[in-house]
Amino acid sequence: MHLPGNRITASLLLLTAGLALLLALAEVFFRVVLPAPDVPALVFADGVLRHKPGQRGVYWDKEVRAPFAINAQGWNSSHESYPLARSEARRIALVGGALAEALETPPGDSLAEELERDVKALPKGVEVFRYGMGGAPLSQHLLVARKAALPARPDILMVLLAPEDIAASHQPMAAPRAAHFLKLRLDAEDMVEELPATPYAQSLGERLRQWSATLRYLSSGMGLHQDTAERLLRRPRPDRRFEAAATAAAPVMDPDEREALDRRAARYLLGRLQAEANAAGAKLLVVMDGARAELETGAPNAELVQALEPNRLAAAEAELLGIAFLDLHPAFAEDFQKHQKTFSPQADAQWNAYGHAVAASAVAAKLNGLGWLQP
Questions:
Q1: pTM (two decimals)
Q2: Taking the CB of residue 65, how many other CB atoms lie within 10 A of it?
């Protein structure tokens, strides 16, 4: 005689076995038949958020498919390692966010590698080491320059800015990685405090994604934006470093007040970058992305002017500090007028290979104009 409890137990066991078989088949399918995207794992090493060294894979983001290669120091690059020992080649350290990380393009097609090709006529060559991390603000660029790029003893430190990088340096952000970046706290007395990066550890969801091809496909391979996927797998938490900050608790500010804070942040961070580059014997060049989305969509002039406000602010602060500055917008505008080719996979996204090539050409021309590539 079979008891109802036994039937329930047998049904649960059968259901569990069926689910396990289904998951196993899904893993095989998304590893062999329809390979899922790869997501480079993160680590917190030497006080800096970076990728786990030695990873290889194929990155997906909507229609983008590109291989990535994480080198021995934890950065996406065509260089397998960044040796501290200097060769005879001129060395450039490129620090930035997603534009420098360049997961959307193959390792040989980013600004760094394009720049190496553009200036290959130098008698002893040039090597460009890039240190890019998606979502990093200007404050984090300072930390990466301090901890990773400048110790490599470059001749030139190049900092690549996106329009949001200055404001994100001092504003509380709920993005999954925000707490693991160096940030600034600005008080009412014109004092600036550096808020150290919080050490990073993988969440359970992130560990499962690294292990499971099925989860990687469902979270990244079905058109879900990478940042959205990260928010689902790693719940953003309030940045506790800002709890005592006037900027965190203040009422909504008018545009002039926000601009004043952005100027203070830019002046402090650019000034620190200049001082630390000088101390390391490196020249500093700040490069800023253009308003590509407005160019490509033919936005009204008023929208274009507004989109370029961060560029004007950064250029003014760099000039005040005597820092070499390159606004990439004129180069993008001139190229788009001539060729009508887009610079990104979709409007207002990261650069595609063509965008990297246009930017590299403008940077090479700037460096030659400054005389920094002369033997």
A1: 0.86
A2: 12
